[in-house]
């Protein structure tokens, strides 16, 4: 044996799972260009002289909102991301844009930025008005972001 130590590398196996392209449906998730996306449209072309029917997928990146497209044979596997959502209590919004969030078990995390655009503006305004807010955080493929918020019922 050699004295070389190997560094651990994440192969991405735990963040996605395979599924046939022909099973993709509107509202589901898919990985296009190594980005987790939500499917907004699918269409299937007929089989041609070269065999497979092709699936044309139009999807929106769940973190950036960019529109992405892909075409692949319906019988081939495509990657589907594991997408999870969690709710946190909003404690504070720092001047640098980072949010202080509290989990159900009382732990805090300060690693997520307030969303850009309309959702972020509405969230800041509601927080500044003294409302107790619950934020929804979406996680996929090692990336996380705040996607929505609602007023707490407490």
Description of the structure:
The chain has one helix at 117-128, and strands spanning 16-20, 29-32, 35-44, 54-61, 67-73, 77-81, 83-93, 98-102, 108-113, 133-140, 143-151. With 154 residues, the protein is mainly β. The model has no long low-confidence stretch (mean pLDDT 88). The protein has two domains: 16-81, SH3 type barrels, CATH 2.30.30; 83-151, Nucleic acid-binding proteins (OB fold (Dihydrolipoamide Acetyltransferase, E2P), Beta Barrel). Strand 4 (54-61) and strand 5 form a beta hairpin. It is built from one helix and eleven strands; from the N terminus they run E-E-E-E-E-E-E-E-E-H-E-E. Its main location: cytoplasm. This is Eukaryotic translation initiation factor 5A. It is found in: Cytoplasm.
The residue ranges in which pLDDT falls below 50 over 5 or more consecutive positions are none
What characterizes the major β-sheet?
Answer: 5 strands, antiparallel
Q: Record the strand order, biggest sheet.
A: 9-8-7-10-11
Structural class, from helix and strand content?
Answer: mainly beta
Number of strands: 11
Query: What portion of residues belong to β-strands?
Result: over 45%
Shape summary? elongated
- Let me know the CATH homologous superfamily of the largest domain: Nucleic acid-binding proteins
N-C termini distance: 61 Å
Number of domains: 2
Radius of gyration: 20 Å
Give the count of helical stretches: 1
């Amino acid at each position: 044996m050699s004295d070389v130590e190997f560094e651990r590398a994440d192969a991405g196996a735990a963040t996605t799972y395979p599924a046939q392209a022909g099973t993709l449906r509107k509202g589901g998730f898919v990985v296009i260009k190594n980005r987790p996306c939500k499917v907004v449209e699918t269409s299937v072309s007929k089989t041609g002289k070269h065999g497979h029917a092709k699936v044309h997928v139009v999807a929106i990146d769940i973190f950036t909102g960019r529109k992405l497209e892909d075409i692949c044979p319906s019988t081939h596997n495509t990657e589907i991301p594991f997408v999870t959502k969690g709710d946190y209590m909003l404690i504070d919004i720092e001047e640098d844009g980072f949010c202080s969030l509290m989990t159900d078990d009382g732990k805090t995390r300060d690693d997520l930025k307030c969303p850009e655009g309309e959702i972020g503006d509405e969230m800041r305004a509601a927080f500044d008005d003294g409302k107790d807010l619950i934020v929804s955080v979406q996680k996929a493929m090692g990336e996380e972001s705040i996607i929505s918020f609602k007023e707490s019922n407490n």
